């Protein structure tokens, strides 16, 4: 009997079960994964039980129902549309986001899902979303039906419902604020939707231990291994913008800006996953904040599938001996682009020093209370502020003229292209367009795609650290050879790059 890889489960359902595979092979394999409660499949599919009309995650601890009563769906939205209610025990809102092999239509779906998680369909139309992705609305609907078994609107409605449920259970926000924070247009619509989905009033879903201190919202975003979280903290600590970011031994904190509003976030890990604490004046921005933080800590990557894919290369096995760090992603692609320019042809430490000086010169002072008040003093400078800076002023912080001119050009470009942060057009097109800016080359473009837009296939092959690691492992001797060799790592070249960087750091230690 054919088996299904954990990274392909969602796609397999979309292409097999929804096309009514005659022998039932796909369903039988998924049932075996469900019986064993294999965590690698969490979020890859959902289990609907006809006798209870409830759908669950494949890791639900409830007793396994009879096979005849079970139906599988590629997404929570597909199960919900079929008439099933979310399980109150395994809590589908905590399932990792569905991501398949990042190529072709699946890559477009993943980018659309990230936008939906950030509230794209709460504030805009399907046509707006499809325009950001670079396809027609009709084509995007077809891709969603193929891969997720539901339309983009249905997926957005399901995400809205599940996020509202999470806010009710884990925060002490008033229900009116929960309604608008989760993207509902009215309190009446919020009450009706949750009551229909869970068979009870929204207020009855609130847990007694929901805590809210000084307007802070605290949410559990997903599981993260302690070693992996420590590695990510180390990565961010070495590159933090002083005054904007604060990285302790056990937590990460920073000031954030969305639109004209400024606030703070803090993240820490525990046995139950990543805990986000948010202090932001606009509750309606919570979906975007959560989506960005999950991307920063790479919570939704199918780690088992990526590792299995990279292990197929025997030359990479030595570098994969330790658990993968994942690919850290910046809070804001614009910030990362600035950081990448500062890091051109200098060490990490030198780039970090320059970054601190830049923020001290152009950043906006903020007033922050709480445990991070002394360390979080500034908001990152707006692109229009950077674009209006003078070359001689930037040279006073240690930048050469060419680098200062590149930063000013970058600030002007982004300030006059307001959708730059959101409309990621794919690796090849983005790289070609970004390289048209003065002072931007292939390394910078690939690095921004990788750590600014979380493109899983970005690969800065000209990076000296990557080339050194490749030489040590007998993979390649030059950037050109490395780029050719990396074809076998698609569509996860960014994870191969991070693996090589990790190996190079361990080798140098």
What does this molecule look like?
The structure is a single chain. By secondary structure, the protein is an alpha+beta fold. Helix content is 46%, strand content 10%. It has four domains: 6-94, DNA Methylphosphotriester Repair Domain (3-Layer(aba) Sandwich); 104-205, Homeodomain-like (Arc Repressor Mutant, subunit A); 217-298, DNA-3-methyladenine glycosylase AlkA, N-terminal domain (TATA-Binding Protein, 2-Layer Sandwich); 306-455, Hypothetical protein, domain 2 (Endonuclease III, domain 1, Orthogonal Bundle). Strand 7 and strand 8 (261-270) form a beta hairpin. Helix 19 (427-434) packs across helix 20 and helix 21 (464-472) crosses helix 23. The longest helix has 19 residues, at 152-170.
